[in-house]
Amino acid sequence: MKENLEFIKKHFVTDLSAGLVVFLIALPLCLGISLASGAPLFSGIIAGIIGGIVVGISSNSSINVSGPAASVALVIFTAIQVLGSFEAVLVSVIIAGIFQVGLGYLKAGTVAYFFPNAMIKGILASIGLILILKQIPHAFGVDDVFEGVDSFKNNDGTNTFSGLMNIVGHINYGALIITIVSLFIIIGWDRPIMKKFTFFKFFPSALAAVIVSILLNEYFKASFPGLALDTSHLVNLPVADSLGEFFQFFQFPDFSVIGNTEVYTFAISIAFIASLESLLSTEAGDKLDPYKRRTSTNRELKAQGLGNIVAGFIGGLPITAVIVRTSANVNAGGRTKTATITHGIIMFVCVLAIPYVLNLIPLAALSAVLFVVGYKLTSLEIYKNVYKQGKKQFLPFIITILVVMFTDLITGILVGGTVAVFFILRDNYKNAFINEKANAENKNHVLKLSQETTFLNKADILLYLDHVPEKSHLLIDGSDAKFVHHDIFEIIEDFKQTAKFKNIDLEIKNLDRSLTTKFWKKQ
């Protein structure tokens, strides 16, 4: 403990600085993700505060930064439409948190790593595409347009693509100018050549874009009133005159919907996506850690679950560990929990003390931020890399994206996961054994079992044995096998009778019943 305290003291100053940098990045993202979720803007701020303080304290990761994530935004948007209110959705968030805590205690922290990577990448890429599509109206200043849900068909009779045509004739050129300027700033700011300068390296591009957008809109008000954005196109956080009034802005769950099965469906979706992103972000964060410390994935699930329970009770969006913020934390010098907790505290103080400044932020600027976030999730480079990995990776990836785009997120997860698992099972099915035909004239055959031969290989082995010619010699060799399922032994026992009937000379080598338990005893 003494050593830990010394380590904390050693990095205290740089951790405080890193916490400030993470706050500057997190604030516009929290607001932008709230916008994308169709939730109250304050809910993203609450999630950012809880992710920094509650999750920061309860996790054993020294560098992870948690908060609202774009990957869950689509689920929340849909849930609000289906359940009828954000207060009802908060019940799903609480239940999702309970699921996560339970998974942590069941030591399921490593289970997420077994989900096919192709499906995971497809989910994230599809979320990025839809985020971009949903933000296009805001980029043009059409902030009252119906954005639809995560399904292809919208409730107003349009679909994801035809609904975008509603912005024609309603373009706000002031918002469009702000969007373009914000995008230029973010893209130019993050170019490698700019990162050679300390200021551009540590001052976040998203915040720079937000500041410029505020100044630009104020300039429009003074010089070009026709381009100026009114309050309907700006962030609209509640402004409190006192601390007591500030806490009245927090929203609370509507437990009257507890009997609605849809509440649990959305809870499972939130828990699945939030846990998956948190675990993957944790793994990536550990690789970034200069001290190469390992984070307990089971404790991380518990911490994320606790954060979501607290968020659900006081009106926050779902929380996950976010690799973008974690990497910014490490790059800014964050080495202990102090940085993560500091960013949450700074966010709380700012929304309490300077909400007037935050309410000057144009929604168009946040759309520019989300365009970049969405592109990072679905960049062309991701498609190229997956394509190079072959059709077994690319097909589940692209099918997941297409299904999400033309149906909904849940269907995409089910279909994409099924396709990915199909390829895994097919490979396992085909690799059950090595067929060695030693001498075609003498009809000598060798069936060499692989290291692990499971019940999934039954069909392939049965098919092979059915096609062994009459009056031939067959050697079933288990020399390389470390585990053979009981079902495979039963198939071989039955084949002994078939071999006699077909006059097949059957020889069995290095294969006994101990192989059904040998593998598991070693674990």
What's the layout of helices and strands?
Elements lengths: L1 H9 L1 H26 L3 H18 L7 E2 L2 H14 L2 H20 L11 H23 L33 H17 L8 H5 L2 H19 L19 H5 L13 H28 L8 H18 L5 E2 L1 H9 L5 H17 L1 H4 L4 H15 L2 H9 L2 H16 L2 H22 L2 E7 L4 E6 L2 E2 L4 H9 L6 E5 L5 E2 L1 H16 L3 E5 L5 H8 L1
Parallel strand pairs: 4-6, 5-7, 6-8
Antiparallel strand pairs: 1-2, 3-4
Give an overview in words.
The chain has 523 residues and is mainly α. It folds into two domains: 2-420, no CATH class; 431-522, 2-Layer Sandwich (Transcription Regulator spoIIAA), CATH 3.30.750. It has 22 helices and eight strands. It has helices spanning 2-10, 12-37, 41-58, 70-83, 86-105, 117-139, 173-189, 198-202, 205-223, 243-247, 261-288, 297-314, 323-331, 337-353, 355-358, 363-377, 380-388, 391-406, 409-430, 458-466, 486-501, 515-522, and strands spanning 66-67, 320-321, 433-439, 444-449, 452-453, 473-477, 483-484, 505-509. Helix 6 runs antiparallel to helix 19 and helix 7 packs across helix 16 (363-377). The two termini are 33 Å apart.
